[in-house]
């Protein structure tokens, strides 16, 4: 399917077909992305518990840093999709170049700051002495790799914005396979390559992520897949940079809120002992896996909503979001029913020889899976808000969800009722139902439809047009 056929499908063709054509490659890419974590866990697990703990304590820190910069990816993807829908290929290219410039500068700053502060962050987390050295090494290499993580994440976001999802899938597949081969090579050593333990896993991931980001930049520079960059396009455009920054700030706050919420919840869970921690860990992993399909569907909704809003087809954008939310609700509700029936077996797959953890983990899954459908609704509606340029709406939903509902509810039920650990588990379905209802009510009001970034501040658009003309990008 060439560019013209793709645009015709997105803007006037069958909505179910358009969602499917976008979602399937995204879902497959998301599945492969988990391969980085699974590969590291597989090989590092052979080094012992302390090595696994070193990676585990590093993840929340790097996730928080990545979340802080992800608002730029949201802003770039939103603007590129709306300009693509509006037929402004010149502005799509300009947005891509300027967004990549912002990402490189931001990632270098965050990476350098994280590298310097890594020892203090681990001390703050109370990392055990036997874990500290490996965790510090892994964390510092991860911060060096932030540049490549940000660059490739931006490449994926911009490609999704213009509706091209197959190229990122190919790149992810190749790099995950390479990472699986490099991990044992660097972790255990071979021939002239010395064994580097946990650091080896970090170096393997760094190399593959660097290759992925380089491949993404090359794709942009060749211009065969919807975005054409030139080196002149990277000249800073203060007007656009200011606009993208303020558009992306709510997105960064939203994701950072979610990341901090996960960290705080982990501290609360840890206060209930080892069995509860293990049950929470297994349940969280299962939740991450089962939401992969609807995450892909929500990203497809984002592309369709963005392009149709940019083209002025607001009602079609609304139909795409509604269909995505409905399908996600049905899909996750069905998966939840299966998880309820198979809960003990699911936990036993991860921890086969601990009956206490299996029992508690099954209780956690059977409690939270009751409202998994609500997660599907939230994801698609929030994606629609972001794609239409209403970043503030999605930020408010995230903050209400994490800080006004889930954490207070988990604390009260867990610490001040007889439910104890089970109170933590009940905070999940209650939060999902309430936030889904709030999201649907806000979506139904229709105020989000009034936002159209391609019509906002025409003076800015003229200035950008002039900048493009001067650079010779057209």
Describe the structure in your own words.
The model is unreliable at 457-461 and 467-474 (pLDDT under 50). The chain has one domain (11-459). It has helices spanning 3-12, 15-44, 49-85, 89-124, 129-144, 146-161, 166-188, 198-222, 238-270, 274-290, 292-310, 314-350, 355-368, 372-387, 391-415, 421-445, 458-471. The chain is globular. By secondary structure, it is an all-alpha fold. It contains 17 helices and no strands.
How confident overall, as mean pLDDT? 84
Helix/strand/pairing class, anyone? mainly alpha
List the secondary-structure elements in sequence, H or E.
HHHHHHHHHHHHHHHHH
Unreliable runs: 457-461, 467-474
Shape verdict: globular
Bin the helical content. over 70%
Jot down its keywords.
83% helix, globular, 17 helices, 474 residues, mainly alpha
Provide the fold topology:
Layout: H1 3-12, H2 15-44, H3 49-85, H4 89-124, H5 129-144, H6 146-161, H7 166-188, H8 198-222, H9 238-270, H10 274-290, H11 292-310, H12 314-350, H13 355-368, H14 372-387, H15 391-415, H16 421-445, H17 458-471
Brief description of this entry?
With 474 residues, this protein is mainly alpha-helical. It has helices at residues 3-12, 15-44, 49-85, 89-124, 129-144, 146-161, 166-188, 198-222, 238-270, 274-290, 292-310, 314-350, 355-368, 372-387, 391-415, 421-445, 458-471. The two termini are 25 Å apart.
């Amino acid at each position: 399917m060439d560019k013209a056929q793709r645009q015709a499908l997105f803007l006037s063709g069958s909505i179910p077909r358009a969602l499917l054509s976008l979602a399937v490659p995204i879902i497959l890419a998301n599945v492969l992305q988990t391969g980085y974590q699974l590969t590291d866990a597989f090989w590092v697990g052979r080094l012992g518990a302390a090595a696994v703990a070193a990676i585990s304590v590093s993840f929340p820190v790097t996730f928080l840093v990545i979340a802080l910069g992800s608002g730029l990816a949201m802003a770039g993807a939103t603007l590129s999709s709306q300009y693509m829908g509006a037929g402004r290929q010149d502005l799509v290219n300009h947005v891509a170049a300027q967004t990549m410039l912002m990402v490189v500068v931001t990632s270098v700053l965050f990476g350098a700051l994280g590298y310097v502060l890594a020892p203090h962050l681990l001390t703050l987390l109370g990392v055990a002495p036997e874990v500290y050295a490996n965790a510090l090494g892994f964390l510092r290499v991860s911060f060096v790799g932030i540049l490549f993580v940000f660059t490739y994440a931006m490449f994926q976001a911009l490609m999704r914005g213009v509706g091209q999802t197959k190229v990122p899938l190919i790149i992810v597949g190749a790099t995950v396979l390479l990472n699986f081969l490099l991990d044992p090579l660097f972790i255990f050593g071979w021939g002239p390559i010395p064994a580097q333990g946990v650091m080896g896993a970090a170096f393997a991931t760094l190399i593959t992520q660097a290759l992925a980001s380089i491949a993404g930049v090359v794709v942009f520079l060749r211009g065969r897949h919807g975005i054409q960059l030139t080196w002149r396009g990277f000249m800073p455009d203060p007007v656009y940079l200011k606009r993208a920054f303020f558009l992306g700030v709510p997105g960064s706050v939203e994701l950072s809120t979610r990341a901090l919420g996960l960290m705080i919840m982990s501290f609360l869970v840890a206060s209930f002992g080892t069995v509860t921690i293990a049950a929470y860990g297994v349940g969280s992993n299962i939740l991450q896996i089962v939401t992969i399909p609807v995450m892909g569907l929500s990203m497809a909704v984002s592309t369709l909503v963005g392009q149709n809003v940019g083209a002025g087809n607001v009602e079609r954008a609304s139909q795409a979001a509604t269909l995505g939310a409905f399908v996600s609700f049905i899909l996750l509700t069905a998966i939840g029913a299966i998880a309820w029936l198979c809960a003990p077996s699911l936990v036993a797959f991860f921890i086969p020889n601990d009956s206490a953890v299996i029992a508690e983990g099954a209780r956690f899954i059977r409690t939270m899976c009751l409202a998994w459908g609500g997660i599907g609704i939230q994801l698609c509606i929030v994606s629609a808000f972001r794609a239409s340029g209403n970043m503030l709406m999605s930020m408010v939903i995230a903050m209400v969800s994490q800080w006004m509902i889930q954490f207070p509810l988990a604390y009260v039920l867990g610490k001040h009722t007889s439910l104890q650990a089970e109170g933590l588990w009940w905070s999940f379905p209650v939060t999902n139902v309430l936030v889904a209802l709030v999201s649907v009510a806000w979506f139904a009001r229709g105020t989000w439809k009034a936002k159209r970034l391609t019509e906002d501040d025409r003076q800015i658009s003229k200035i950008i047009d002039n900048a493009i003309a001067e650079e010779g990008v057209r």
